Task: inverse folding
């Protein structure tokens, strides 16, 4: 792996970060064009339906009157080779006579998956794949799950004390974590397609579930799991600051359904299994709506249900240096663990300090 390839791929990854959270259900992609040792074009995918990163980078160079013939393009994800909402990027690269393309990782989409690289090579373009592959895959971890497993990427978020409590015995929880940690939590909301809570959290906290403490050009969908439609119609989750989806059973009062629908709330009816909705049914419904990445913010029962189901891809834990004691509300409920060998094991990807708090980025082991 050449030093300059690493250098320019890092630049492409930085560009891709700018589009994080805005491109769903498309991937997050960045691209740079280099000629004679200088970057002459930059671009990133801004939003689904808009030009892809490769075309943005080409447009940037051309708008400056620069000749990109014989240049090298660095792109974080394999260029597409099919017609969708936009024409194939491989054709734009071929037409502009770019000499070499360096790709971070292959696209898992069956319509592309290696075919983009093959198309470029057939046209006589030199292609290298795998430069900073792990970083390129990490930035699109949600897209990879969405395409491969045909369900949303499930990201569980927990804010807790050092002894693993999310509230006191009276339900008091504002604020366990510091301002810096809460700002980072809003960054996670910005990167998600949707934020999800259960009935208990909605009733007790009356949350907005919007991005407020972090710059964002969009608001995530809000998803409420409320089988009996207990949440009052005047609660923040039903205001017009973002779109809301509610999962309910068919036994709920038709009058309340009507009132919520009049407010623009989408209601999805699901069958109950042991007095709750199956995680698989929830995820299948959200996948059909193009929801690629959900941030599950609680409460305890909902977090526990996802962990027990095995349908989760990442856990973010914000831990504050506070103690509540055994009568506090734990962040995770019963998992049926009787022997330590049955415990749920996680892999720590990263740890960082956020003010007085500690942030853990975890993945299933």
Result:
């Amino acid at each position: 792996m050449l030093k300059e390839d690493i250098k320019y791929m890092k630049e492409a990854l930085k560009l891709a970060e700018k589009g994080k959270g805005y491109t769903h259900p498309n991937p997050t992609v960045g691209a740079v064009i280099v000629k004679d040792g200088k970057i002459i074009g930059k671009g990133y995918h801004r939003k689904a339906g808009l030009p892809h990163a490769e075309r943005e980078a080409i447009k940037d160079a051309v708008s400056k009157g620069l000749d990109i013939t014989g240049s090298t393009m660095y792109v974080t994800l394999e260029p597409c080779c099919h017609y969708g909402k936009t024409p194939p990027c491989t054709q734009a690269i071929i037409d502009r006579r770019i000499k070499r393309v360096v790709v971070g990782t292959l696209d898992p989409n069956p319509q592309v998956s290696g075919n983009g690289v093959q198309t470029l090579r057939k046209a006589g373009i030199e292609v290298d794949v795998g430069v900073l592959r792990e970083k390129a895959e990490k930035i699109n971890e949600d897209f990879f799950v969405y395409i491969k497993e045909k369900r949303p990427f499930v990201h569980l978020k927990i804010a807790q004390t050092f002894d693993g409590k999310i509230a006191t015995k009276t339900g008091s929880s504002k604020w366990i974590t510091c301002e810096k940690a809460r700002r980072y939590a809003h960054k996670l909301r910005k990167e998600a397609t949707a934020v999800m809570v259960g009935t208990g959290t909605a009733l007790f906290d009356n949350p907005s579930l919007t991005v407020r403490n972090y710059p964002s050009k969009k608001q995530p969908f809000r998803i409420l799991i409320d089988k009996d439609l207990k949440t009052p119609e005047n609660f923040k989750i039903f205001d017009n600051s973002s779109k809301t989806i509610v999962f309910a059973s068919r036994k709920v009062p038709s009058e309340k359904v009507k009132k919520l629908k009049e407010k623009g709330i989408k209601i999805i009816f699901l069958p109950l299994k042991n007095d709750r909705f199956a995680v698989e049914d929830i995820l299948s419904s959200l996948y059909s709506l193009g929801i690629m990445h959900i941030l599950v913010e609680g409460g305890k029962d909902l977090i526990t249900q996802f962990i027990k189901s095995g349908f989760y891809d990442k856990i973010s834990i914000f831990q504050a240096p506070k103690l509540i004691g055994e009568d506090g509300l734990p962040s995770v409920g019963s998992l049926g663990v009787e022997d330590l060998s049955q415990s749920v094991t996680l892999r720590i990807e990263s740890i960082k300090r956020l003010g007085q708090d500690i942030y853990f980025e975890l993945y299933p082991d």
Q: What stands out?
A: The chain is about 30% helix and 25% strand. Residues 3-18 form the longest helix (16 residues). The mean pLDDT is 94.
